[in-house]
C-alpha cells in the first residue's frame, strides 16, 4: 500500500465538487503548483504526485490538486470554459485565503487545453493569484487518439447531427471507453473533442504551424514548459512525439521550451523522477525570475 500523503482538503467554490487538496503544511504566503486534470483524472491520479509534492514542499511551495466538474467521469458533459472558470475560482481562493505569491498551472493531457483556455480568458484577473508560468505535460490530440478507436467516427457523425438539431447537451453515448470508465458523453463535448478545429483541438499533429500559433500564441508572455513523452501511447504511430512537443513550443514563442522524456508513457509511470525534476525545476526558476 502506498504511503499516505499529508495535506489540507478545502473548498474553493460553492458546488459540491469544488474542493481541492493541498499537499504539505498549507502555509500561507508561498507559491502553488496547480495541477489541471485530464480526462478521468481525480485526486492522486498520477504516480509522480507524491514525490512532486515533497520536492515542492522542500522549497516552500505547495502542490494543489483541484476537483473540477470535469473530474473523474464528469468530463463528458463539461467544457474548457467551465473548467477555466473553476480554475479561476481556485486561483482567487488561493490568493484570498492563502496569500499565494503566484501559481504555475500544470496541465496533463486534456488538462493542457484547460490551461491554455485559462491563460486566454483569465491571465490578467486582478483577484486571482499571479500566473507565473504554465507546464503542458503530454499535450496530445484527443481527436487523433479517439480516431484510433473503433466506432468513434460514426459516433461523431451522430453527435454532429444532434448539435445541428439543437440537441448538443443530450447524451450521444454512454461508456464510450468501456464499462470500467463510465461516462455520459454529450453530443457537444464529442464534437469539441473529435471534430477538426473543435474546441479541444489544440495539439493535433496535422495542424499547420500557423494554426498552432493562432491557438497557442497568447501564451507568449508567459514562461511555458512543454513536456512530451517519448513513448506516449495516446499519440498515433508514426507521429514524432518529441518533434510535436517542439512544434507546440515554437508556436507559443521564445518564452516556451520543450523537453522529451525518453521512453515515457502518457502519464509518466516509471518516469516519476524525471517528471518531478522537470516540473519542480521549472517552478523554482520562474519564481526566482519573478522575485528579481
Automatic annotation (TrEMBL):
This is Serine aminopeptidase S33 domain-containing protein. PANTHER family: UPF0613 PROTEIN PB24D3.06C (PTHR31591). The lineage of its organism: Eukaryota, Viridiplantae, Chlorophyta, core chlorophytes, Chlorodendrophyceae. It holds the Pfam family DUF1749. It comes from the Eukaryota. It comes from Tetraselmis chuii. InterPro entries: AB_hydrolase_fold, SidJ.
Amino acid at each position: 500500500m502506498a504511503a499516505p500523503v499529508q495535506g489540507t482538503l478545502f473548498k474553493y467554490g460553492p458546488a459540491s465538487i469544488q474542493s481541492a487538496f493541498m499537499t504539505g503544511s498549507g502555509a500561507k504566503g508561498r507559491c502553488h503548483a496547480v495541477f489541471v486534470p485530464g480526462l478521468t483524472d481525480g485526486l492522486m491520479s498520477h504516480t509522480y504526485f507524491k514525490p512532486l509534492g515533497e520536492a515542492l514542499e522542500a522549497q516552500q511551495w505547495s502542490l494543489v490538486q483541484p476537483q473540477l466538474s470535469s473530474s473523474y467521469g464528469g468530463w463528458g458533459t463539461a467544457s474548457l470554459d467551465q473548467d477555466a472558470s473553476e480554475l479561476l475560482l481556485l486561483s482567487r481562493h488561493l490568493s484570498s485565503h492563502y496569500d499565494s505569491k503566484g501559481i504555475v498551472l500544470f496541465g496533463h493531457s486534456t488538462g493542457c487545453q484547460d490551461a491554455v483556455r485559462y491563460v486566454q480568458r483569465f491571465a490578467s484577473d486582478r483577484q486571482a493569484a499571479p500566473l507565473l508560468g504554465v507546464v503542458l505535460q503530454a499535450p496530445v490530440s484527443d481527436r487523433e487518439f479517439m480516431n484510433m478507436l473503433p466506432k468513434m467516427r460514426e459516433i461523431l457523425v451522430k453527435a454532429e447531427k444532434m448539435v445541428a438539431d439543437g440537441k448538443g447537451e443530450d447524451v450521444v453515448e454512454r461508456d464510450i471507453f468501456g464499462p470500467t470508465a463510465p461516462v455520459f458523453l454529450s453530443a457537444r463535448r464529442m464534437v469539441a473533442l473529435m471534430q477538426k478545429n473543435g474546441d479541444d483541438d489544440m495539439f493535433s499533429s496535422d495542424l499547420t504551424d500557423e494554426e498552432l500559433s493562432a491557438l497557442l500564441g497568447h501564451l507568449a508572455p508567459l514562461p511555458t514548459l512543454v513536456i512530451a513523452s517519448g513513448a506516449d501511447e495516446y499519440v498515433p504511430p508514426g507521429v514524432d512525439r518529441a518533434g510535436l512537443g517542439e512544434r507546440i513550443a515554437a508556436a507559443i514563442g521564445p518564452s516556451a521550451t520543450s523537453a522529451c522524456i525518453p521512453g515515457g508513457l502518457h502519464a509518466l509511470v516509471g518516469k516519476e523522477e524525471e517528471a518531478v525534476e522537470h516540473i519542480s525545476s521549472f517552478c523554482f526558476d520562474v519564481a526566482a525570475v519573478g522575485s528579481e
